[in-house]
Design goal:
The protein is α/β, with parallel strands linked by helices. The chain has 2 domains: 4-60, no CATH class; 66-176, Zincin-like (2-Layer Sandwich), CATH 3.30.2010. It has 7 helices and 6 strands; from the N terminus they run βββααααβββααα. The strands form 2 sheets. The chain has a 3-stranded mixed beta sheet. A 3-stranded mixed beta sheet has the order 4-6-5, with helices on one face. Bound molecules: zinc ion. Residues 138, 142, 148 line the site of zinc ion.
């Protein structure tokens, strides 16, 4: 069975199956290929089951059901909804984004460049309003703090005290897409 191995500082080994149905093994640096092979083989039933679940999910997920017209409509919707939200929250937060672009990014919901240009994926339209608002506030907060350290989340929390709840909801929602 083919798998991708990621060597990390962790002490234990962890196997996971990604949405793209790839087997990923996170392993301590000192472990040998043979040892990993053995552990993978010992867990083959579990892995096969996970692969099946992920395959089913990818066939049933909202994204896989979208037709070309749906995508065109979602892009249109994003182009009207997102700039409005950005305007609204940038006023509250007192920040000044340089521009807003709607992208087709698959793995990134949004981004903020060093020059404070914001990008948002049209896929945001597949999420709920409260979560979209969180992503907007998150990117706007990057205008002040470019990293994800404590200061950054303090900034987010100032304008969205329940951001953690929204962040966990985002994690659940994106698994279902
Ligand atoms: Zn961020």
């Amino acid at each position: 069975m083919n798998y991708q191995i990621i060597k990390t500082d962790r002490k234990t080994l962890a196997i996971s199956v990604s949405k793209e149905q790839k087997i990923i093994v996170r392993a301590p640096k000192c472990i040998t290929k043979k040892e990993v092979d053995n552990i993978v083989n010992n867990n083959i039933d579990w892995i096969k089951k996970q692969l099946e679940i992920m395959k089913e999910r990818s066939e049933n997920g909202v994204l896989s059901r979208l037709g070309e017209d749906d995508i065109i409509n979602l892009k249109k919707k994003a182009k009207s909804v997102i700039p409005d939200k950005v305007r609204y929250y940038s006023q509250i937060m007192g920040v000044n984004p340089q521009g807003i672009k709607i992208t087709s990014a698959k793995t990134r919901w949004g981004s903020c460049s060093s020059k404070n240009n914001l990008c948002f994926s049209w896929r945001l339209m597949l999420l709920t309003d409260d979560v979209i608002d969180y992503i907007v506030v998150h990117e706007l907060a990057h205008i002040r703090v470019k990293n994800h350290q404590i200061k950054f989340y303090e900034e987010v929390k100032k304008y969205m005290p329940d951001y953690k709840k929204r962040e966990s909801k985002l994690k659940i929602l994106q698994k279902e897409l």
